[in-house]
Design brief:
Length: 212
């Protein structure tokens, strides 16, 4: 019985590490970006979403409990991010950011797949510069998870961040509002060209599923 239970657990964990079949899911952005806020700085080229400058691309709609599935590719020194549930699109620090980077920026938790300035990924799963990576980001209530190239690297409960400017491990962060008090619904955004290098980032196959 113990062996059977172990097999069942193993199967569950294996399934949890699979990126979903997104057939039938909604595109986060229309190809003409008509459902985006001020999309002039971004464009689809050959099915790939690319920024022309530093402006963030925001959805017009707000999203709460969702699964967001996407691929991204970076250049050397690329620095971008996926913003979730923004409380104010004029203030990026009002949103959780899943970091997109070729390696890391100056923040203690600024590496690719981190919850920016709040939680590092458990493993390094990034592919080399110029190759496509895969994120599946799930937000449900206070829980946020990131599946990165087939590995669960973030499994967070925002309720574990009860204090402003402080992470559960005691390190400081930049957020003037405790993460447990962040908005649970808001626009999703992609950060434009960022950092000194202003290096490009490419996104494709960006799909979303709203959870009930």
């Amino acid at each position: 019985m113990k062996f059977a239970a172990l097999l069942a657990l193993s199967a569950t964990l294996s399934f949890a590490a699979d990126h979903p079949d997104t057939t039938g899911w909604k595109d986060l952005f229309a190809t003409d970006l008509s459902n985006a806020v001020s999309p002039g700085s971004w464009a689809f080229t050959h099915g790939e979403l690319v920024a022309k400058d530093h402006d963030t691309l925001w959805t017009r709609d707000s999203y709460g409990d969702v699964i967001l599935d996407l691929e991204f590719k970076v250049a050397k020194e690329s620095n971008s991010g996926v913003f979730l549930r923004s409380g104010d699109i004029k203030n990026v620090l009002s949103a959780l950011e899943i970091q997109v980077h070729d390696s890391a920026d100056g923040s203690k938790y600024g590496m690719v797949a981190a919850i920016y300035d709040a939680m590092p990924p458990t493993k390094k799963m990034a592919k080399p510069v110029g190759e496509w990576n895969h994120f599946t980001i799930t937000c449900q209530g206070s829980k946020v998870s990131v599946l990165f190239n087939g590995e669960l690297v973030i499994d967070a409960d925002l309720n574990n961040w009860p204090d402003a400017k402080k992470n559960p491990d005691g390190t400081p962060n930049k957020f003037s509002v405790a993460l447990k008090d962040f908005a649970r619904s808001g626009p999703i955004g992609f950060q434009g060209l960022h950092g000194k290098a202003q290096a490009p980032v490419w996104y494709r196959n960006v799909k979303i599923k709203v959870l009930k």
